[in-house]
Design goal:
heterodimer, A: mainly alpha, DNA polymerase, domain 1, Four Helix Bundle (Hemerythrin (Met), subunit A), 3 domains, two-stranded parallel ribbon, two-stranded antiparallel sheet, 16 helices, 4 strands, about 65% helix, disordered N terminus, B: mainly beta, six-stranded mixed sheet, five-stranded mixed sheet, about 15% helix, about 40% strand
């Protein structure tokens, strides 16, 4: 190791790999090298001093040195406390902070102020006060965390839900004899989403189905009229359903669990709907269709929990059901209408209404929030 | 971030900076040193950049190529553990632009511009990119350069989520970043790309520096480009020539991000340029008036115009030039 270090010294590209700021390796490096660190640091310092100083170079660098920001060096907490990545966590995870601090709508505020370069930006971006931050800081991270428990399952189910949405709209287009339009929607699950659930499939003993999806995509691309498409399509859909079935039954039937997934789907649908419309016309059919698929599947999920919702949460149920029905009208057919039925703003408002009412149900059922 | 070097007005380099450059030139062996000295004396110790004509307002067509041309983002500089960190904040969004009078196009872009911000660091700096995806689809930022697999930016970041990419800026040269979510053709074709310049430790001689990124637009999703552009808007510099001064050294950072067409050339009229391949040399490799770039290829080109007047630049695949990838330099007398 030391030899490598000395070689590095003369290298053109000084690569301080061992004390790199890479946030993912930092924690490991810290443990492995703790006893070495002092000696190494000394060497590094001497290396640095021996390299030609180029800091007086005229190459311009507006140095807005923000001394207030503290370095990313002290936020690995290994006290066994669960950490939440404020850059990626879904609302129901962020609700833990909301509950700890008793600040209404804090979860939404945290999401709205993304991205965060470090946890302290919760304070500098005025999301929480310093005093509030001190109470939660052990749980806050911007590093990748391994999700556990319900959050992990919601994340998994949401991704599979997006796949379902893509496939649902693909099926509609296939049925209308529009294989060319269907093709990107068969591609998206494997291109954008599969890689993100791949590890989990193995963990949950779900047989890989990438091959099935790619096979279907290849078939549609090269033989759009083939008789085999129907059968291949069914096996793709079954594969996704099989992956969903790997979740525990109590989650799959729980209103709170499904609402979290529904909101993830609607959030994506909302954004894609906006991306479909230019100058008051639907100019990107693919994004219109994506969002249609997500909304249809969100509706399917809601149908399954509508009964318990009506019984246990009649008020939110009323708003959600009405908003869902309204929302569905924005996508009258798989092939986009000449003129959008709803503006992106109208769709956003409906999605927000569903989200707010879902939150009431989710926080009620989640004892930690 | 506003360009601190060329804030839209004639900028004169101070004597101290030029002295430093001069000394560096002495330190560099061979022809470059001589060339640099010649240049420094010939250019009478100043880089001069004509006032930038006002761009169309954003609301007109959605992009401002004249601003993009000389706009370099050096990030927010922090010192952490004795090391220079350059922090950049990038958000992927969807916005509509007017490619021409008839064609509105839903772009996917970084920080509401195409190309995305020209990120700039010096070799050995630490780069931290805080990336937020507000684009609906999953996106990512994949940087060209040397870094670990973890920082390679091929993992899709879902809508609404953020991530942080961190790596050392190396090696020096003119590089790029782009979304690597599949299908990459569509993600790049929609506008998710930008230039990433890593300056050599010793810097480069002063020049009027500018960025041109060639892009293609597949407007009807037929996997062929219908329109092309320098810096986002078809025919913009054709209709609004880029003013430069006579005899002023111009350093052009050139990148080709055109999908579907495997290769294009870049040609300037009535002149020749020195080529610094991939910007990874301090001395030019050769001179030409046409250079070939496959998709994602990029080079630094240096030239100065001896005569005033308007001079075209364009790919010599003339169909592509005719479909929007066309511009003029307007060479003016500084006196």
């Amino acid at each position: 190791m030391l030899r490598k270090l000395l070689n590095e010294r003369s290298s053109l590209y000084r690569d301080f790999w061992f004390w790199s700021f890479n946030r993912r390796t930092r924690a490991i490096a810290r443990f492995l090298l703790l006893s070495f660190s002092a000696a190494m640091l000394a060497i590094v310092v001497s290396c640095t001093q021996q390299t030609p100083n180029t800091s007086n170079n005229p190459s311009p660098a507006p140095a807005t040195n923000t001394s207030a920001a503290s370095p990313n060096t002290n936020h690995q907490q290994h006290g066994g406390k669960e950490q939440i990545n404020i850059n990626t966590a879904i609302l129901s995870e962020l609700d833990k902070f909301e509950a700890m601090l008793g600040v209404p709508a804090l979860s939404n505020k945290i999401q709205a102020s993304r991205p965060y370069a470090n946890p302290e930006e919760l304070v500098s971006k005025n999301v929480v006060t310093q005093e509030q931050f001190d109470k939660i800081k052990d749980m806050v991270t911007v590093e990748d965390v391994v999700l556990t428990g319900e959050a992990k399952d919601v994340d998994y189910m949401s991704k599979l839900g997006l796949m379902k949405g893509h496939l649902i709209v693909a099926k509609e287009l296939l049925d209308k004899q529009l294989p060319k339009q269907a093709e990107p929607h068969i591609g998206h699950p494997v291109e954008e989403i599969y890689v993100d659930v791949e590890d989990q499939l193995e963990e949950r003993n779900v047989k890989e189905f990438k091959t099935t999806l790619i096979g279907l995509q290849d078939l549609i691309k090269s033989q759009p009229k083939s008789d085999k498409i129907q059968a291949d399509f069914s096996s793709s859909m079954q594969a996704v359903d099989g992956a969903i079935a790997a979740l525990p039954e109590n989650e799959r039937s729980s209103p709170a669990f499904n609402l979290q997934v529904i909101n993830e789907l609607l959030d994506a649908a909302n954004s894609e709907y906006g991306a479909a419309i230019a100058n008051g016309k639907i100019s990107a059919a693919i994004e219109y269709q994506d969002s249609r698929g997500f909304v249809i599947y969100a509706n399917n999920l809601y149908q399954k929990i509508a009964e318990p919702m009506a019984k246990e949460n009649p008020e939110p149920h009323k708003v959600i059901e009405t908003s869902m029905n309204e929302l569905a009208k924005a996508w009258p057919s798989p092939v986009p209408p000449a003129k959008p039925v709803n503006t992106p703003d109208e769709v956003t408002q409906l999605v927000k209404a569903i989200e707010q009412n879902s939150q009431k149900v989710i926080s009620k059922s989640n004892p930690s929030a | 971030m506003p360009n601190k070097l060329f804030p839209g007005k004639s900028t004169t380099w101070n004597r101290r900076q030029l002295l430093q450059w001069g000394l560096m030139g002495v330190g560099t062996a061979g022809a470059a040193a001589v060339g640099l000295q010649t240049f420094v004396s010939r250019s009478s110790s100043a880089v001069r950049v004509p006032p930038i004509p006002p761009s169309d307002s954003l609301s007109d067509r959605g992009l401002q190529p004249m601003t993009v041309l000389r706009d370099f983002d050096y990030g927010t500089v922090r010192k952490e553990n004795g090391r220079t960190i350059r922090e950049f904040r990038i958000t992927a969004r969807n916005t509509t632009i007017q490619l021409n009078r008839a064609v509105a196009f839903n772009t996917w872009n970084f920080n509401n511009r195409i190309p995305g911000p020209t990120l700039r660091a010096k070799q050995g700096d630490f780069v931290r990119v805080v990336f937020l995806n507000q684009g609906g689809h999953s996106h990512s930022m994949h940087f060209h350069g040397i870094h670990t697999a973890q920082e390679d930016g091929v993992r899709p970041i879902r809508h609404g989520a953020a991530t942080i990419y961190e790596f050392e800026a190396k090696p020096y040269g003119v590089h790029l970043y782009h979304c690597h979510a599949e299908p990459v053709t569509r993600h790049i074709g929609k506008g998710l790309y930008g230039m990433f310049i890593i300056d050599p430790p010793q810097g480069r001689p002063p020049a009027d520096e500018m960025v041109l990124v060639m892009g293609g637009f597949d407007v009807n999703e037929d996997r062929k480009n219908e329109l092309y552009a320098f810096n986002g808007l078809p025919d913009y510099y054709h209709m609004h020539p880029i003013p430069v001064y006579q005899n002023q050294l111009i350093r052009l950072y050139l990148l080709n991000t055109i999908e579907f067409d495997p290769v294009v050339t870049f040609h300037i009229h009535a002149n020749f340029f020195k080529v610094y391949p991939t910007g990874m040399t301090l001395n030019p490799s050769h001179e030409s008036d046409v250079i070939t770039l496959g998709t994602a290829e990029r080079h630094i080109l240096e030239f100065a115009y001896p005569y005033t007047g308007k001079y075209m630049f364009h790919p010599h695949q003339d169909a592509i030039a005719e479909a929007g990838c066309m511009g003029y330099f307007d060479v003016i007398n500084p006196a």
